Amino acid sequence: MRDFVEIRFMVEKELWEKLDLSNKTEWYAKEKNRIYLKGAITRHHMQVLRQQKIYGHHGLWIDPDRVLEPSIKKIFSGNLVVDLPSRKVMVHTKTISLMPEQYEMLLVFLKHPGQILTRELLQDLIEIRGNKQVDTNAVSASISRLRHGLQDASMIKTIHQNGYQWTKEVKIVKE
C-alpha cells in the first residue's frame, strides 16, 4: 500500500455513509473515516471533498482546531517545536510569529514529512483559509515567508515542477 496516500476524515459515521466516496474512481475506501488515494493528493481530490461538504478538513489539518487529534500536544522537527494547544511555534527556543495560513501550511508539511505536496494543494489551502481565490504566486510567497520565519530554508525543499517537500524528521508527542 506504499503507493497510496492515506486521508483520515473526522466525520460522524452517518456523514461518512452519505459520502459514499468508495465508488469514486481513484479512491479506495478501506474503512470508516479513511480513504486511500493513489499517488499525490490533487486539486481534483480536494474539490470532490469540498463538494461533499468536508471543505478540505481531511487529515491534512487545513483546520487544525477541528481536525487535529486532541491528544497531540507538540510536534518536533529539527530545531522547530510546535505547541498545538497554544498554537506557538518556536525555533531554537525562540517564539516566531506566523500568519494563520503559514501556520496551517506548516502543519500540513509536518503531517506529511517527505511527501511531495503539490502547488495546487497548497494553493487550495490558502484559498480555503482566506475564503478567496489566489494565484500560484501566492503559494511561492507563502512558502518564502514560512521559510524565512523558520530560519532554515532547507526544511522545505522545492521539487521542480512537482511541489514542495518537508525534509526533516518529525516527532509527534501526545498526552
TrEMBL record:
Gene3D superfamilies: Winged helix-like DNA-binding domain superfamily/Winged helix DNA-binding domain. One of its GO terms (biological process) is regulation of DNA-templated transcription. GO terms for molecular function: DNA binding. Keywords: DNA-binding. InterPro entries: OmpR/PhoB-type_DNA-bd, Sig_transdc_resp-reg_C-effctor, WH-like_DNA-bd_sf. The keyword Secreted does not apply. SMART domains: Trans_reg_C. Residues 71-168 form the OmpR/PhoB-type domain. Residues 71-168 bind DNA. It comes from the Bacteria. This is DNA-binding response OmpR family regulator. It comes from Faecalicoccus acidiformans.
